[in-house]
Design goal:
With about 650 residues, this protein is an alpha+beta fold. The protein folds into 2 domains: about 10-360, Glycosyltransferase, CATH 1.50.10; about 375-650, Distorted Sandwich (Beta-galactosidase, Chain A, domain 5), CATH 2.70.98. About 25% of the residues lie in helices and about 15% in strands. The protein contains 16 helices and 20 strands. The strands form 4 sheets. Strands 8-9-10-11-20-17-16-14 form an 8-stranded antiparallel beta sheet, with no helix packed on it. Strands 7, 12, 13, 15, 18 and 19 form a 6-stranded antiparallel beta sheet that branches. A 4-stranded antiparallel beta sheet has the order 3-4-5-6, with no helix packed on it. Strand 9 (about 470-480) and strand 10 (about 480-490) form a beta hairpin. Helix 2 packs parallel to helix 5 (about 110-125) and helix 9 (about 220-230) packs parallel to helix 11. The protein is globular. This is DUF2264 domain-containing protein. It holds the Pfam family DUF2264.
Length: about 650
């Protein structure tokens, strides 16, 4: 396949309406991989030629194994695929230690262990692979898939589930496996459980509950285990289903009615895998908790995939999935994202293994609107979610990746994440344009060259002021600078606003930059950058966007109380609501490709300088309205929420 500039990928042309069209959608994902299989089919070298932290053989194994998720679901649901033999042959070649395409024996903490999960699941879900292996080939699979992983150390994270499935695949086919490993790994994984359906992605001391806790790994694999091992392990299966029932009432708040999920945390390059939890509920025959219905679950899945069908830039010219989110982008990737890595997205097709008689398929799609709470506090992830303001948004405090991941402060430490206005990551380490501080407070002690933001917190908790849930965190960007931040969700009377409060005690002089959401920096007239706001077309910005790094032009600044806003795909803005004067507003012209969904963005921002020894109070109103008539995008801009009385008393 070769996609020209004006060509549309087959994935984007399918009318997604039922199980058969979903099967076609998966085939459209798998077909472009054909020319990238190695001669003996054990490796898939997806276009890209980018390096990762593991070796090239493991990278090409990743390209082979991850699409196998989708194929296994398709075959498990009695579907057909013309390229099934590619994976059967690859299984034979890759596990043969005397074959030139042998995958290699894994070392400690080896990436090969990750790919053993889809390889093991495929064996467990369908017998088409095992039945086509000779006795010697089965012995090779047992040695590579079972013995090699059972004798090695693994990261103390969701990875332990991968060893469970390597053994489970062999067990389901009568191969040599370790029940002791299955039992001990699941017992240890249970130590990650925090309650109310939520598991942490790691032990005590790490607070990381992103899509790995639900759709990418833990909840998802618990449900697959409950289905495949439920007869032999009914107690665990029942517990995993119970956890999923409870968690579903929280997880439903991460998806909007337009089909978008809220991007949050790492591995956003897995794209539509964010909805795999919902298909897994049907796969494991979980009874849904009220008020959820199978029509709502089906709606989440189908709307989400349709939204991705509208994202035409996610494909390479060869038709394969690119590294990135809504367009190819290396800035958002992690050091483990090889060109084949995005095919973890095939988890989304778990619903293809669900019988066509299941209510997931027989129900009509339903909306979530007016069914689930508009505001909900999620204790364990430290989130407050909102369905107000015509987008799905969460406020966040306390999470942090357990190791120094690229852009970790943006992926976990931002104050707000939105389904309509995705987060931004830094493109470099010089100036606000490169840091792209969307929904973050940045601080600089060198005049604005280098900036620090919230990454970890000394204290982070969900608290209440009356009936209002708030998030409180205390953090130190520098040893002698302490910040107490309070996040307050939108209200029915001001649905497009949320409040951020920062009390800063400065032991050194620091510049501050408080950023709103990032928004598309392209106008509808001629495709150029946004200009000064034009009421006749209800578009552009206030104040004017000034060229990068030029902070001295007066027309690029406004008083913080009048704020800064930008209008293109909806409207975003920011205002200073504190009583004292001081902060100024401007538009940060963020570096291209810093945002997940929009390649060109601008960030309305409040800036200020805090003198050494000062304590200052910032009360920031952040505005966002992504949909509706263009002339109504700014309807709420002149009516920010009142500062709560309890807040003034508490912060003073």
């Amino acid at each position: 396949m070769h996609l020209g500039i004006n060509d549309v990928h087959p994935f984007c042309q399918i009318e997604l309406k039922d199980r058969a069209s979903m099967q076609d959608l998966l085939r459209a994902v798998l077909d472009p991989l054909e020319p990238f299989f190695s001669k003996h089919k054990a490796r898939v070298n997806c276009p890209g030629n980018t390096a990762v932290r593991f070796d090239q053989s493991a990278s090409e194994l990743e390209g082979f194994a991850r699409p196998l998720w989708g194929l296994a679901f398709l075959l498990g649901g009695h579907g057909e695929y013309h390229g099934t033999d590619w994976w059967i042959q690859g299984y034979k070649s890759g596990t043969d230690p005397n074959h030139p395409e042998y995958w290699g024996y894994p070392r400690e903490n080896d990436q090969r262990m990750v790919e053993m999960c889809p390889l093991g699941f495929a064996l467990a879900e369908t017998n088409v692979i095992w039945d086509n292996l000779s006795q010697k080939e089965r012995e090779n699979v047992e040695a590579w898939l079972g013995n090699s992983i059972n004798e090695k150390n693994m990261p103390n994270t969701n990875w332990l589930w991968f060893r469970v499935f390597a053994n489970l695949g062999l067990k389901k086919n009568g191969g040599k496996f370790s029940q002791d490993r299955i039992d001990s790994d699941i017992k240890h994984l249970d130590s990650f459980y925090r309650g109310d359906g939520w598991s942490n992605d790691g032990p005590e001391g790490i607070h990381q509950m992103d899509y790995y806790s639900s759709s990418f790994a833990i909840q998802f694999l618990q449900l697959l285990y409950a289905k495949l091992a439920g007869d032999e392990d009914p107690k665990r299966a029942a517990e995993f289903k119970k956890r999923a029932q409870i968690a579903a009432l929280d997880l439903v708040h991460y998806y909007d009615n337009e089909g978008r999920a809220i991007p949050y945390g790492r591995s956003m390059g897995y794209r539509f895998a964010t909805i795999s939890f919902w298909g897994a509920l049907a796969y494991a025959n979980v009874e849904l908790p009220a008020p959820l219905t199978w029509g709502m679950v089906k709606g989440i899945v189908m709307r989400h995939l349709r939204w991705w069908q509208s994202q035409h830039a996610i494909w390479t010219a060869s038709g394969t999935l690119s590294l990135g989110y809504s367009y190819p982008n290396m800035y958002i990737t992690e050091n483990y994202n090889s060109p084949g890595s995005p095919y973890w997205a095939c988890l989304a097709f778990v619903c293809l293994a669900v019988p066509e008689t299941h209510p997931f398929w027989t129900s009509k799609e339903e909306s979530l609107r007016d069914v689930i709470p508009k505001i909900k506090a999620l204790k364990h992830p430290g989130h407050i979610t909102s369905y107000l303001g015509r987008h799905c948004m969460l406020l966040s405090s306390g999470q942090a990746c357990g190791y120094p991941m690229k852009g970790t402060h943006a992926k976990y430490g931002a104050f707000a994440y939105s389904s309509a206005y995705t987060f931004s990551v830094p493109t470099g380490l010089f100036s606000l344009e490169q840091y792209a501080l969307a929904s973050q407070l940045g601080l600089s002690d060198d005049g604005g060259e280098y900036w620090k933001t919230r990454r970890t917190s000394e204290y982070a908790a969900l608290e209440y002021r009356g009936d209002t849930p708030i998030l409180v965190s205390i953090w130190r960007p520098f040893p002698d600078v302490t910040i107490k931040t309070i996040l307050i969700p939108p209200t029915e009377s001001a649905p497009n606003w949320h409040l951020r409060v920062h009390k800063i005690k400065a032991g050194r002089e620091i510049m501050t930059a408080d950023g709103s959401f990032a928004i598309c920096n392209i106008n509808s007239k001629n495709g150029r950058y946004l200009d000064l706001y034009d009421p006749s077309i209800c578009e552009e910005t206030h104040p004017k966007i000034i060229g990068n790094y030029d902070l001295s032009t007066a027309e690029g600044w406004a008083d913080g109380k009048s704020g800064a806003f930008a209008v293109s795909k909806g409207a975003v803005g920011i205002k200073a609501l504190e009583t004292q004067d001081g902060r100024m507003a401007n538009l940060v012209n963020a570096d291209p490709n810093s945002n997940l969904a929009e390649s060109r963005t601008v960030i309305p921002t409040l800036q200020h300088t805090v003198r050494r020894g000062e304590t200052v109070l910032y009360i920031t109103g952040v505005y966002a309205k992504p949909t509706g008539p263009r002339e109504a995008f700014l309807d709420g801009w002149e009516s920010p929420p009142a500062v709560p009385r309890w807040l003034e008393a508490e912060m003073n």
